[in-house]
Amino acid sequence: MAAVDFRELYSLAGRTALVTGASRGIGAAIARILGQMGADVAVNHLDDAAAAQQVVAELQAMGRRAAAFDVDVARKDVATALVAAARSGLGPIDVLVVSAARSIHARLEDVREEDVDAQIDTNFKATVRLLNAVLPEMGKRGFGRVVTIGSITEVAPLPTLPIYGAMKAAHHQLVRGLACRWARHGVTLNTVSPGLIRTERNAWRREPGGDWDAFARSCSHAGRAGEPEEVACAVAMFCAPGASFVTGENLFVAGGAQIAGRRDAGSSVPGG
User: Fold this and answer.
1) Does the pLDDT of residue 207 top 50, yes or no?
2) Share of the chain above pLDDT 70, in %
3) Using 50, 70 and 90 to split pLDDT, how confident is the model at 264?
4) Phi and psi of 190, rounded to 5°?
5) CA geometry: angle at 229 spanning 97 and 238, to 5°?
6) What pLDDT is recorded for position 172?
């Protein structure tokens, strides 16, 4: 057997990635790690130009080509235009990471119709359109990596996020079906589902009087929240050329929160 160059297994040099929702938090961490792997990166955001340009500047400082694209992926007419613009500026899309999401907390009986539509459009329909825009070209070139960001709510539902959790579960089912179709063409599709991650979206819990410390301890068997970079690391694994035989998977980055059982069970270890 020929010697394996592990650097090549993880290298995205010469590849182009499109990351949605990439100006802050998990999306920004993913954009950075793909840049570190050698990819040029299209940074999608919505009305967050300053933060997006900061991510672009960091990528360019690595020697990567990068550009920001300010569009709402939930809009019906956006996906094809976004992919075309990114292709024109950076090259054909080899890696797609769908990180943009919208969650609206409310019990089902209190969810407004427009809030249902907003979550379906952002968390499901946008993904369908983006996949239609990139998969055929990936298949023709014989290489593609798609990673969608799911959620722990797929398996551990929250009473105030019924639509969001349902859409994330549907998201992964879509990915699994497409994984079967495109595997023979060198294209893999996988999901990474975070648990509680320290991001700006939950910054209100860390304000004075907030419940962050107690909430974080109770949300995983690890007894803490995760960091965006820990999610990005899992995404990077799926995007690597060496992960060519892994498709249709859902990897939880949640400190074991997807595992049933008392969250304080390991508090007395090590030793007993």
Assistant:
1) yes
2) 94
3) low
4) -140, 165
5) 40
6) 93
Please answer whether residues 101 and 119 qualify as being in contact, where contact means their C-beta atoms are separated by less than 8 angstroms: no
H/E element holding 128?
Answer: helix 126-141
**Which are the contacts of 76, defined by CB distance < 8 A and separation ≥ 6?**
125, 129
What's the predicted TM-score (pTM) here?
0.93
10 in catalytic set = no
Question: Is the CB of residue 131 less than 8 Å from the CB of residue 176?
Answer: no
Classify residue 2 as left (phi > 0), alpha (psi -120 to 50) or beta. beta
Half-sphere exposure of residue 205: CA atoms within 13 angstroms, side-chain side? 14
Per DSSP bridges, beta strands 95-98 and 16-19 are parallel
The one-letter code for the residue type at 15 is R
Nearest to 160 by CA among 107, 201, 124, 199: 107
Beta strand segments in the chain, E: 16-19, 40-45, 66-70, 95-98, 144-149, 187-194, 250-253
Cα–Cα distances (Å) from 132 to 126, 135, 231, in that order, read 10, 6, 25
Q: Which of 34, 124, 151, 164 is catalytic?
A: 164
Close Cβ partners of 241 (under 8 Å, ≥ 6 residues apart): 8, 9, 10, 11, 12, 143
The residue with tokens 């369908």 is 128
Strand partners, 226: 197
